[in-house]
Amino acid sequence: MKHVGKGYKKIDSAMILSGRAVYTEDLVPAHALVIKVLRSPHAFARIVTIDTAAAMRVPGVVAIYTYKDVPQRRFTLAGQSYPEPSAYDKLLLEPLVRYVGDEVAFVVAESEKAAKQAMWLIKVTYEVLDPVLDIHTALDHPSVVHPEEDLHYNFPVGGDPKRNLACSYNHVVGDVEGELAKCDYVVEETYFDQAASQTAMETFRTFCTIDQFGRLVCTSSTQIPFHVRRHIAHALDIPASKVRVIKPRIGGGFGSKQTACTELICAFVTWTLKKPAVLILDRKEAMNCSTSRHAREWKVRLGATKDGIIQVIDMVAISDAGAYGTHAFTTFTAGEHKSVPLYNKGKAVRYSSNIVYTNHMPGGAFRGYGATEALWPLECAVTKLAKKMGIDEIELREKNLINVGETSLVYAPDEVLESGNLKEAIAKVKTMARWDERPKSWQIDEHHRGGLGIALAFQGSGIANIDNATVEIRLNDEGNYILYTGSTDMGTGSNTVLLQMACEVLGCPMEAMSCYEADTDVVPFDPGSYASSTTYVTGTAAKLAAEELRQKIMQQFATLLETDTANIDFDGLTARTLDDGRTMTTKEMTAKLSVGPTYGQLSATATFGSHTSPPPFMASIAEVSVDTQTGQVVPIEFYSVVDCGTIVNPTLAKVQAEGGIVQGIGMALYEEVRYSQAGQLETNNFMLYKIPDRTDTGKVTVDFVESYEPTGAFGVKSIGEVVINTSCPAIQGAILNACGAEPTELPMIPEVVFEAMHK
Amino acid sequence: MEVTLTINDKKINIDIAQDEALLTTLRNLGYYSVRCGCETTNCGLCTVWLDGKTILSCAYPTFRAVGHSITTLEGLADEAAYLGECLASEGADQCGYCTTGMMMSAMALKREKENPTDEDIKAFLKGNLCRCTGYESQLRGIRKYLRGDEV
Amino acid sequence: MLTCVRMLQPTTLDEAYELITTRHKTAPLLAGGCWLRLGKRQWPAVIDLTELELEYIVKDGDEYAIGAMTTQRDVETYEAFQHLGGGILPQALSSILGVQFRNMATIGGSVAGRFGFSDIIPALLALKADVVLYKAGRMSLEDYLTYDKRDILIEIRIKCEQPAVALVALRKSASDFPYLVGAMRHDAVGYSIYIGGRPGVAVKAKRASSILTAGRENAVAEAGEAAAAELFFESNSHASSSYRQAMTKVLIERLWYTVTTAGDNAGEVPAWK
Fold first, then answer.
1. What is the mean pLDDT of residues C105-115?
2. With 0-12 CB in 10 A as exposed, 13-18 as middle and 19+ as buried, what is C270?
3. Domain boundaries in chain A?
4. How confident is the model at residue C34 (pLDDT cuts 50, 70, 90)?
C-alpha cells in the first residue's frame, strides 16, 4: 500500500514544535475577562450564607456568580452520545457542595490578580455535614450525597440516589456457586485500584467569545466538541444553533477531556456578560477538581477444573463514583466486555458492582475506561490460579484463551471474536522476553531478586451500536483535497492517520490533502476521540468518503475526457486515458468545475458506525528487580506485543504503545492517590503525585503482530487504550515471581510490597 | 517596574510587576514555546536558558534576568527545527505541550556534554516530564539529533 | 506562586541583616526561588539575596568555602567535589528533581530550609561541614540545624581532606523526596550516623553511632536497632513511621557497607535509588 503502513511524521509537528500560537491559551483574545473558581474547603457542606459585597469592591472585578445566579437545569459533564448513561446530577453551582474542590462561586475580573484578590474576600458560611468517605459504608449512609429531587436518569442504570447508589450492574451467566463447587482449584483475592489521575500536560482550559452574529463561540481543550455543544445548550438553556465549539491543538487528554470541566462555566460567563472570558485550571485544580479513574475494590474468585479449564470468573466490586456520576455506569460495564472474554472456556460468570456516590472527586474517563480496572484483578487472579495449580501462567492462559470465531458468555447473542492474532502475539512476547529460556525468578545480588510476570489485555474499538462518525472530503477549486472530521487529535496523530487512509484510497500524495478538525460549525458530526474510536470508526468513515469521492472524480473525468471510467487511470492528482494516454489533472478539472452553470464542486460525505467493537489485543511480560529489604520495585524491561489489526502508521502506533505502557507503569508503581481524613485529596500536584520521569520506566520494548479486522477499513482496529492495561498485573506477577510477595493494591510502592513480603 | 531584558539576543524594554515570573513575562511577549504545566517546579515545561543554562522560568523572578541573556526555543529556530524533525521522525512530538521545554534541555545538553550516553541523556532531561510518549521515542529522536542524522 | 507587595534588594550584608531584623522580621529571603514558588500567600515584602555576591566556590587553605547563593548544579559539577568524600555531594544533589531546578536552587536555600527530606543536609553532616552566619559567625552545621535566630547564611565550609563517608537515600520514585535518607562518616574518632526524612531533618543517631564505633560482633544490626529506637519517627505522605523504623536498619547496614568498602570503589555508591 502507498500510505497505509508508512511511518509518516504527524502533520502538525512543525507547528506544535515551533512555539507558534496553536493551543487554547495562545489564542485567548486580548482583554478577555479572567474567571477564577472559589471552591469548597469541605467534603460535604451546605452553604448557609455567601456574601460577595466586599469582593465586588475589588478594582477590576466584573461579576461574581453564586448558586442564586445560575440556571437550574441538571446535566452531566460526561462526554457521551445522547441519551447519556450518566446521571444528570450536577448544576453549575448549588448550595450543597459535595467534595473538597466543588464549585462555590465564579469570580470574573479584568485580571487574574483582581480575581484572586476577590476570591479571598468572599465570605461563605457553611453548615458542615458528615461526609461519605468510605465506599464500604456509602450505601445507606445517613448522609445522602444527592438528596435533590430533580436528579435525572435518561434510562435505568440501577441507581438509587437516596441510598447513595449512583448506579449498579449485576450480570450473572450460569451458576457461579454451583460451578465453583465443582472446581478442583479455587482462588479468591481482594484487589484495589486507584482513582488515578490522567494528568495531561495541558490542564483544562476554555475561552469563549460572542461572534458577529451574537452566537457563543467556545474554544476549548476538549476531546468532545459536539457533546460540549449539546451540554452547553442544555445546561444554559440556549438553542444549540447559537453555540459553536472549536478544539485547537490540545496538550493531551487520556480521557480527562472527555468530561467538560471548564466549558460550561466559561460559556455561562460569556453568555451572561456577552464578553470574552477565559478559564484556565491550574495543576492543583486539574488534579483535584476534575475527574479521575474510578477507584474499585474487587473481590475476585476464579475456579478451574484439573484439566486446566477456568470454569468460573466471579468479579464483584464496590466502585467509587465520587461526588457526581460522570461515566460511572459505562466505565464499569465496558470493563466486562474487555476483560472476561479473554478466557471463554468456562461455564459461569458474574460481573457485578454497586457504584456508590461519595464525597470524593468524581470518577470519569481515563484511558482504558474500565478495562484497566477490570484486567488488574482478573489477570492477577489468573496468575494466582496458575501458581496454585502448579502450571506455567502463560500455559494456563493459552489453554483458556478465546479463538477467532468463538463467543464468550458475556458477548451479545450473535457476537463472536472476528479477528485477532492472539496466540502469535503471546508466542512473540515469550520469545522477546526469553520466557522459556530463563527462570521466572532469580537472585540479582544479596538484596535484589529478579522476576518475570505476564498479563494479557483486550480493549474495544469504538462503542458498538452507539458511535458513528461522519467524514467529508472535498476536492477544492485548486485541485487539492481537504478532509473534515469531528474527531479530536489530542497529540496521538489521529489526523495524520485519517489522511493516510483517505490518501490511500484517492492515491494522492499526503501533501495534496489537508485536514480540518473539530469545529462544530464546519465539520460533520463525530462523537469525538474516545473509546479507542478514531482509527476504526472515523478512519473507516474516511475511507468510505474517499471511495465515494474517487468515484465521483472518475465519473467527472470520464465526462470531461469523453470516455468511460474503465478507461481512466487516476493517481489522485492526474487522470490518464488508458487507450490514448490523454491526461487531465485535478487542478485542470476543478478549474472547469468552478465556473459556469454546468458543474459544481465535488465532495463526498460518508458515515460509519459498527455493530461491533473489535478488540485489539496485547500480551506483555514485565521484568522487575525487587529489593528484598525495602520492597522497592524497579522496572527493568517491559516487553509487549500488540495486535491492533492493520497498522496504519507504525511509528505512531509504537509511541502509543510505549506511552500507554509507561502510564500503566506509573499506575502500577508510583502514582498514589491519598485523601486526608477530612476528605481532602492530598496528592493533587506533581510533587506528591509522581508520574514517571524518564529514569523511572526501565526499558520499554514493543512489537506488533498484525491481523485483519474485516469490519474496519484496511483491517484496522484500535491502539490507544489497550496499551495501558497490562502494566499493573504484569508487574504484580513479576513481583510475585521475584520474591513471593503478592501486593494487591495499587500503586505497589515499597511499603506496600514490603508489607506483602511480610504477610 | 521598567526593565530592559535581553531575549534571544534582542533588547526589550518592558514594564513588569516586581513579583512577576519570567514565564509570565515571556508568554505576555508572545513566546508561546514556554508553558506552565505545574505550580511545583516539577514538570519542566517552562524551561528556558539563562546565560545558556536551563532554568525553570515559572520560578524565576523576571527582575533577576536583567543583565542576563534569556534564550527561548524561538531564539534557536534552525537548531530547534532540526531537533523537532528528529523527534517528529520518531513520533516523539505527540501532543507537543511538554516537548518544547524538553527540547531546551536537549539543546543545552549538547552544549554541556560531548557524546552523552543514554544514561546521561536521561539524567539531564529528568526534570522534563512527558505524559504521552513514555520517553522511549524522545530518546530515539534525541540520539538522532546528537549524532546529526539526516531526517 | 511567589507574590509580594515589595521586593527588597539589599546590596550589602549589613543592609540585608538590618532589613531582616528590624522592619521586615517575618519577610522571607529569596534565594533560588524554587520553594517560595510553592506558597499561596502574598508577602508584604520579600528580601532578594542576589546582590550580596554569595555565589562562589573557593579553596581556602584546607577548606572549601561555598557561598550560600551558589546553585546546587554548580556544587554538583564542581571538579574537586567529584572525588571529595567519594563524590557524596554530586550524589546527594543529582537526585534532586531536574537540572533546570538545580540551576536555580541554591545550596544555602537547601541548608537554611532545614528540610527533613533533604539529601544534602545528611551529606554535609557526614562531611562535618560548618556554616558561617552573618551575626552568629561560624558554627557546625549540626548546631545550625537547631539555631533559631534570624540570621543570614553566608557560606558553608568543608574540609578538603575527608575520611570515608556514605549517603543512602530511599525514595519511591526517582524524582520524589526520599522517605528516609541517611549518611555515615568513619573517621579517627569512630562512626557517625545521621538519619533524616523520618520525616524530620537529619540528626545524629548517637547511640547507634557509638555501638558501631565500639565494633562488637553484630554491631551493624545492633546499631540499626538502636537507631530505630532512639530516633523520633512519624508517618506522613511518604511513609509510615513503622516502615521508616524498619528501613532505618536497612539504611544503616547499607551505609556501613558503603563506608567500609569506600576505598575499593570510591564514588560508586550502589544505586539503590
1. 95
2. middle
3. 13-129+204-280, 296-462+612-757, 468-609
4. confident
Q: Does domain A468-609 have CATH number 3.40.50.300?
A: no
Q: Which phi and psi angles does A514 have, rounded to 5°?
A: -110, 170
Integer Cα distance of A157 and A166 in angstroms:
8
Residue C102 has pLDDT above 80, yes or no: yes
For chain C, what are the domain ranges?
3-52, 57-159, 164-260
* pLDDT at residue number C38: 74
Task: Indicate yes or no: CB of C37 within 8 angstroms of CB of B58.
Answer: yes
The conformation of residue A721, written as its DSSP 8-state character, comes to T
Topology, domain A296-462+612-757: Aldehyde Oxidoreductase; domain 4 (3.30.365)
Same fold, A296-462+612-757 and A468-609: yes
Q: What is the mean pLDDT of chain A?
A: 98
Are C57-159 and C164-260 in the same CATH fold? no
Instruction: Please report the pLDDT score of residue C263 as a whole number.
Output: 57
Residue A48: how many other CB atoms lie within 10 Å = 10
Q: Give residues 51 to 70 of B whose Cβ lies within 8 Å of A.
A: none
Q: How long a stretch of residues is chain C?
A: 273
User: One-letter amino acid identity for A56?
Assistant: M
Q: Please count the residue pairs, one from chain A and one from chain C, whose beta carbons lie less than 8 angstroms apart.
A: 43
Residue A190: CB atoms within 10 A of its CB come to 12
Contact A284 B39 (CB under 8 A): yes
Mean of pLDDT values over A494-498: 98
CATH H-level superfamily of A13-129+204-280: Aldehyde oxidase/xanthine dehydrogenase, a/b hammerhead (3.90.1170.50)
Nearest to C175 among A627, A683, A693 (CB): A693
Residue C6 is predicted with a pLDDT of: 86
3-class state of residue A117 by DSSP: helix
Which CATH superfamily is B2-74 part of?
Answer: Beta-grasp domain (3.10.20.30)
What is the nearest CA distance from C65 to chain A, expressed in angstroms?
A: 32
- CATH classification code of C164-260: 3.30.390.50
Q: Which CATH class is domain C57-159?
A: alpha beta
DSSP assignment of A146-162: ---TT-B-SS--S-BGG
Mutate which: C94, C99, C117, C173, vs A, most A CBs within 10 A: C173
Q: What is the CA radius of gyration of chain C?
A: 19
All structural domains of chain B with their residue ranges:
2-74, 76-147
- pLDDT tens digit string along A230-287? 999 999 999 999 999 999 999 999 999 999 999 999 999 999 999 999 999 999 999 9
- pLDDT of C268 above 60: no
Residue A252's identity, in one-letter code, is: G
Q: Distance between CA atoms of A537 and A552, rounded to whole angstroms? A: 23
Separation of alpha carbons A320 and A297, rounded Å = 9
In the CATH scheme, what architecture does the domain B76-147 have?
A: Orthogonal Bundle (1.10)
Distance CA A173, CA A410 (A): 7
Q: What is the distance between the alpha carbons of residues A235 and A238, in angstroms, rounded to a whole number?
A: 8
Instruction: Write down the pLDDT at residue C273.
Output: 27
Q: Do A632 and C246 touch (CB under 8 A)?
A: no
- Residue C5's pLDDT band (cuts 50, 70, 90): confident
- Evaluate if residue B78 carries a pLDDT over 50: yes
Report, as an integer, the average pLDDT of A335-348.
98
Contact A253, A247 (CB under 8 A): no
Q: Mean pLDDT across the stretch C103-132?
A: 96
* pLDDT single digits (tens) A380-413: 999 999 999 999 999 999 999 999 999 999 999 9
Q: Do A630 and C172 touch (CB under 8 A)?
A: no
Contacting residues of C for B61, CB less than 8 Å apart: 2, 7, 30, 33, 48
Q: Which three cell numbers stand for residue A4?
A: 497505509
- Has residue C267 got a pLDDT over 70? no
